[in-house]
Specification:
By secondary structure, the protein is mainly β. The chain has no helices and 16 strands. The strands form two sheets. It has an eight-stranded antiparallel β-barrel. Strands 9-10-11-12-13-14-15-16 form an eight-stranded antiparallel β-barrel.
């Protein structure tokens, strides 16, 4: 199953490997202005549609679940990827609204966690026992079944957010012909709530109150080598670019 094409029209940071430095060096070159004070109002989890930023006090930034090093110099966010490639992004902060300029476009993020109190300790690494960072992201499974007189398509995705929340969306469509008459049906299902993980078990606590446990297995796609989560025999491939397991 090929990886779904990421939603390119939405807000978010592009791949670091494709960026040029725009107005400054990487975090290592940011100087004293590049330090992130423990009470920095940037620290927290921010969302814009399907995109998320988890800005931590230890110099680590999660972009849609993928970790990068970062530093702040004035009104500029310096981001460095795992391969050392770097980019810089001007930003404006007003309360719980963060506006980042990405490729000349202003992207507005809203805070989903409380701002840090003055003098608060830096945020440490995310616990591997609750919402491990390697599971954070959006995962999708697509299936097509073709028959002589019709077929069925399904598209299921769930997003495991760094703040411990999740969103689930599944839609399906069926079509065919009976006695020369065409027919078609569509359906969809949505859910949201809180998630956590212990070992190879994923726990989802729906906002409806239902708690479900799923056993998963980490695999890499046999053709693209993209990471997958195999749940109930179905392979959910990463929606965003992530390193292989």
């Amino acid at each position: 199953m090929a990886r779904p094409t990421p939603y390119s029209g939405g807000p978010g940071f592009p791949s670091m490997s494709n960026q040029n430095n725009q107005g400054g060096g990487p975090p290592a070159d940011a100087g004293t202005d590049g330090e992130v004070p423990p009470q920095s109002p940037l620290i927290g989890v921010w969302r814009a549609n399907e995109k998320s930023l988890d800005i931590r006090g230890d110099g680590i930034l999660l972009i849609n679940g993928q970790p990068f090093k970062y530093a702040v110099g004035g009104q500029t966010l310096f981001v460095e990827g795992p391969d050392g490639a770097a980019a810089s992004y001007p930003f404006e902060l007003s309360g719980d609204q963060l506006v980042v300029t990405v490729n000349g476009q202003r992207v507005t993020y809203s805070r989903t966690t409380p701002a840090p109190a003055s003098g608060a300790a830096p945020a440490g690494p995310q616990s591997s026992g609750s919402t491990p960072g390697d599971l954070v992201g959006k995962w999708c499974h697509m299936a097509n079944v073709n028959a002589t007189n019709g077929g069925r398509q399904t598209n299921t995705c769930f997003a495991l957010n760094p703040d411990g929340s999740y969103e689930y969306h599944s839609e399906s469509s069926s079509s065919g012909t009976v006695g020369g008459n065409a027919w078609g049906t569509t359906s969809q299902n949505d859910d949201r709530g809180r998630w956590s993980s212990t070992g190879n078990t994923l726990t989802a606590q729906s906002s409806s109150g239902k708690v479900s446990n799923y056993t998963f297995e980490k695999r890499n796609h046999p053709k693209t080598n993209d990471p997958m989560l195999v749940i109930g025999g179905e392979a959910f491939v990463t929606y965003y670019q992530k390193p292989s397991w």
